[in-house]
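Re: that backbone. Tokens:
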């Protein structure tokens, strides 16, 4: 691997890691809201409009960020781009080529990947008739625990290639872990006003 190839691979992995950092941040934000909803629902009742905006906004951007990892469009910087680079630079490395095929298959068969695609395409990134269809929300229901498992899969895959090709470990999860506590502290100081029950998209 020459200097230019290493630079291209490092940039591809950096792009994935940065996107994963933000994905974890939005996930942790939702976990913070969920924690307050369970421990002190009256705190959310104080801010019904803000709670609804945060809840739906975090989900929309999280679905978009998660989809970035598997986006195969031409200019996208997801796993497909990394795999394309690796096939170009290391076509003679049978073990690496087999690992790429394995990871691609994992993404194709992972049910939650398809769910994220549908949420992103039908609700978050585009305004389609699906948002009026109750069956959509039932068919493609996604729990926060499912989202966490999918993020862990993305984390596992990017770490494998980062360690093997760059000898580098990344920390994409911990930078935003404090968000849960911050949201708890911020919202549990609220004084109750009127109640609200914004419709959500995840439950545990």
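Recovered sequence:
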């Amino acid at each position: 691997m020459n200097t230019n190839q290493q630079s291209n691979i490092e940039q591809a992995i950096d792009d994935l890691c940065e996107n994963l950092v933000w994905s974890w941040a939005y996930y942790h934000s939702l976990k913070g809201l969920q924690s307050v909803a369970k421990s002190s629902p009256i705190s959310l009742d104080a801010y019904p409009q803000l709670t609804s905006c945060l809840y739906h906004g975090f989900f929309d951007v999280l679905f978009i960020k998660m989809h970035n990892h598997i986006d195969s469009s031409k200019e996208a910087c997801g796993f497909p781009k990394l795999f394309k680079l690796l096939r170009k630079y290391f076509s003679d490395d049978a073990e690496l080529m087999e690992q790429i095929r394995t990871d691609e298959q994992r993404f194709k068969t992972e049910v939650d990947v398809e769910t994220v695609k549908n949420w992103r395409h039908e609700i978050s990134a585009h305004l389609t008739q699906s948002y009026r269809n109750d069956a959509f929300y039932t068919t493609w229901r996604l729990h926060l625990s499912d989202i966490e498992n999918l993020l862990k899969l993305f984390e596992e895959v990017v770490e494998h290639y980062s360690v093997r090709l760059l000898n580098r470990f990344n920390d994409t999860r911990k930078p935003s872990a404090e968000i849960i506590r911050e949201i708890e502290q911020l919202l549990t100081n609220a004084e109750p006003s009127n109640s609200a029950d914004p419709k959500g998209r995840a439950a545990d």
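The CA atoms of residues 110 and 150 lie 9 Å apart. Confidence is low (pLDDT under 50) at residues 190-201.
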